[in-house]
Amino acid sequence: MTSPDFMYPQPTDDELASQQPSTAALGLGHHVHGGSNGASHSHGSVIGQTPASLNTETNHGGMSPAGANRPLLGKLALVLTIIAAGLSLLISIILGITIGPMENANGYYFTDAPSWYQNLAIVFAGLQVLCAALGFTGLIMGIVAAVTGRARTQGIVAISIAVLAPFISFGVFMILSFTFA
């Protein structure tokens, strides 16, 4: 590639390519140099391959470059949010079904309930906090996955689940606690 201005000669493509740094992560660990007759030849593990035919997903040592497992972030965010939403919904159903009959049998105040139920409710409240933390982590991971393109669809689904799950879980709890009161 030369400049149309012949006063200042520009380097050729082969000269520019020989000045580029080694990119071992993409499988281009050795430079392609121009020979004395103008034909290009390769050195090392890329013999007989043109730069266009090199596989950029793995290098020639069989190792994958950083970022080759890109969809993992979105899938992990989706799994985290599904687990958090499912566990939160299950806990809300159990507490919603049992809190009304427990109030009717033992009194309106939580301290009037049997100690085993108080302990169960405290453990379930702690699990709800854990589910909230997992959901928030899944939300952040889903946002990062959607923005960076690491399994964008799974990231968007994880975001929507993480945003809607607390409202659905609390709504189910309220409906069931008033239904079974």
What does this structure look like?
The chain has four helices and two strands. By secondary structure, the chain is mainly α. It folds into two domains: about 70 residues, no CATH class; about 110 residues. Strands 1-2 form a two-stranded antiparallel sheet. Strand 1 and strand 2 form a beta hairpin. Helix 3 runs antiparallel to helix 4. It is rod-shaped. About 15% of the residues have low confidence.
Brief digest:
The chain has 181 residues and is mostly helical. It is 57% helix and 3% strand.
Which structural traits does this protein have?
181 residues, mainly alpha, two-stranded antiparallel ribbon, 4 helices, 2 strands
Topology record:
Layout: H1 13-18, E1 32-34, E2 40-42, H2 72-106, H3 115-148, H4 152-179
Antiparallel strand pairs: 1-2
Helix pairs in contact: 2-3, 2-4, 3-4
Structural class: mainly alpha
Order of helices and strands: HEEHHH
Sequence stretches where pLDDT stays below 50 over 5 or more residues: 31-36, 38-48, 53-58
- How many domains in all? 2
Q: Roughly how many Å is the radius of gyration?
A: 30 Å
Care to count the β-strands? Answer: 2
Distance between the termini: 81 Å
Instruction: Provide the β-strand percentage band.
Output: under 5%
Strand order of the biggest β-sheet: 1-2
